[in-house]
Write a structure and sequence with these properties.
Structural class: mainly alpha
Radius of gyration: 20 Å
Number of helices: 11
Helix content: 55-70%
Strand order of the largest sheet: 1-3-2
Low-confidence stretches: 1-5, 27-31, 34-38
Number of domains: 2
Strand content: under 5%
Mean pLDDT: 81
Shape: globular
Length: 231
């Protein structure tokens, strides 16, 4: 790998981003008290981004050193677009652990090319969908999948009340209140990750996927594969 090419590989790009964050934080902390107070919110945001990037960099290098990520994968459009999405998320959003962990998992699963090829457009779309969801909606999505796994691959099709579904998700997710779950339900329906309610909202068609659409199920399966990428 040539010198210029090496400067533009994933490790170098993320490391430079990590370094610039560190320098920015150092600059804020060394500024005047009045300026520091005005920058407190930004400081906290950048600190979180700094921590997430450090974790991401460590995991990326671990899989590279083990030979799990092909050298030529770094040149693919899929890789470049997914990396850009993650860096853009850290730069523009208020980063949270739930969202970032899912983005990282999708990125690494795509990089290892176990569930998708480098020509696939799915990883990019998965990442963009996750970026649009709130952390609460992501938690509801993953909890819905965990419950669905208790049913799969059984082929029963069931209609149940929305109240039953909301209570079950609330208990399993740790959110406790079905009203809180309901606050995030619309987000998942908007992006066709779970099925809509039926009969003026009182009934939900569960199917054998606990309300997940095929797209929602495949997205969750893709994310879950992160746990198996070392096997």
């Amino acid at each position: 790998m040539g010198r210029d090419e090496k400067k533009n590989d994933t490790f170098s790009i993320v490391r430079r981003t990590h370094k610039s964050l560190t320098e920015g934080l150092t600059g804020i902390l060394s500024s005047k008290p009045q300026e520091w107070i005005l920058s407190t919110g930004y400081l906290l945001q950048r600190t979180r981004a700094h921590e997430f990037l450090a974790t991401f960099l460590k995991e990326w290098e671990k899989y590279r050193e083990k030979g799990r990520i092909p050298d030529d994968y770094l040149k693919t459009e899929q890789h470049k677009e997914c990396l850009l999405e993650i860096l853009d998320y850290l730069d523009k959003a208020l980063p949270d652990e739930i969202t970032f962990n899912v983005l990282k998992k999708i990125f690494l699963v795509a990089s290892i090319e176990k569930l998708s090829t480098r020509e696939s457009l799915l990883p990019q779309h998965y990442i963009r969908i996750i970026r649009k969801l709130s952390p609460g909606a992501i938690l509801i999505l993953t909890t819905t999948y965990l419950i669905a796994k208790d049913v799969l691959p059984k082929d029963q099709l069931i209609d149940r009340s929305a109240t039953v579904w909301l209570n079950k998700i609330a208990k399993r997710s740790g959110l406790l209140y079905p009203e809180l779950v309901e606050n995030y339900e619309d987000e998942l329906m908007k992006y066709n990750l779970i099925t809509a309610r039926q009969n003026i909202g009182s009934v939900i068609f569960y199917g054998n996927r606990n309300r997940l659409t095929e797209f929602g199920l495949n997205l969750c399966t893709y994310i879950e594969n992160y746990e198996d990428i070392e096997k």
